[in-house]
Amino acid sequence: MSHSIKMSFDQYNNKATTTGYKMQVTFPLAAFAAVLLVTARCINAQASSGPATTNPAFPGSCYFSDYRVALRPGEKRSLPGRCVELSCERRSGRQLFASQIGCGLTGFPPSTNCRVVTNKLLPHPACCPRLVCNRVPVLVPKQMAFTDLLPLHLPSAPPSSLCPTISPLPYAPPSPFTLPFAPNLPLMPSP
After folding, report:
1. Nearest 5 degrees, angle CA 46-CA 61-CA 45?
2. How far apart are CA 90 and CA 187, in angstroms?
3. Secondary structure, 3-state, the chain
4. Which of 92, 87, 86 is nearest to 73 (CA)?
5. Fewest C-beta in 10 Å: which of 66, 98, 130, 162?
6. CB 68 within 8 A of CB 77
7. Considering only CA atoms, which of 146, 141, 125 is closest in space to residue 188?
8. How far apart are CA 133 and CA 12, in angstroms?
9. Angle made by CA atoms 104, 134, 123, in degrees to the nearest 5
10. Assign residue 60 a region: left if phi > 0, alpha if psi is -120 to 50, beta otherwise?
């Protein structure tokens, strides 16, 4: 009887260990897949490369018909106003390959504190859209109460203070800060 109980216990431990191992492998794989999906949604760069189109008017060059540009092998060019970088290279002896790199799609989340900035007159990749965020003000009290027993409750700023460009008047917290239910705690002098 005790032998069958021991066998059952060992089988249970073995099953628990196997399940734990599967969980250890599955979780990082799922986390990696989630990161990959988020990255693919947010950063979708445009890039293409393949055998070059040629034009008899420009022998020995890669011809980009969409832009009416011819490049010699080894040459790269950013196109102002288009935010794209074109390049031409010779592979396998005589075969010409053309590459085109652009910005692609951007999936920046909407925010009142951030904005998308683009300057298509700059060369690639500086012309690609980028997210620029305003600094969020951090409220630091002039005097802080010293205690290890009670949490410090700071007043919260109104929502408009998250974006200084919207509200011209800065939010000024009341001074000095107080702790709830502890009116007689000494305050530390300000530095």
Report:
1. 5
2. 74
3. CHHHHHHHHHHHHHHHHHHHHHHHHHHHHHHHHHHHHHHHHHEEEEEEEEECCCECCECCCEEECCCCEEECCCCEEEECCCCEEEEEEEECCCEEEEEEEEEEEECCCCCCCEEEECCCCCCCCCCCCEEEECCCCCCCCCCCECCCCCCCCCCCCCHHHHCCCCCCCCCCCCCCCCCCCCCCCCECCCC
4. 87
5. 66
6. no
7. 146
8. 54
9. 35
10. left
Q: What is the pLDDT along the chain (191 residues), one digit of tens a residue?
A: 444 444 444 455 455 444 444 445 454 544 444 444 444 334 445 788 999 999 999 999 999 999 999 999 999 999 878 889 999 999 988 899 999 999 876 676 667 788 888 888 898 888 988 888 887 665 655 554 444 344 444 444 444 333 333 333 444 444 444 444 444 445 555 55
Pull the structure tokens for residue 153: 């409750």
Look up residue 180 and give its amino acid: P
Residue type, 69: V
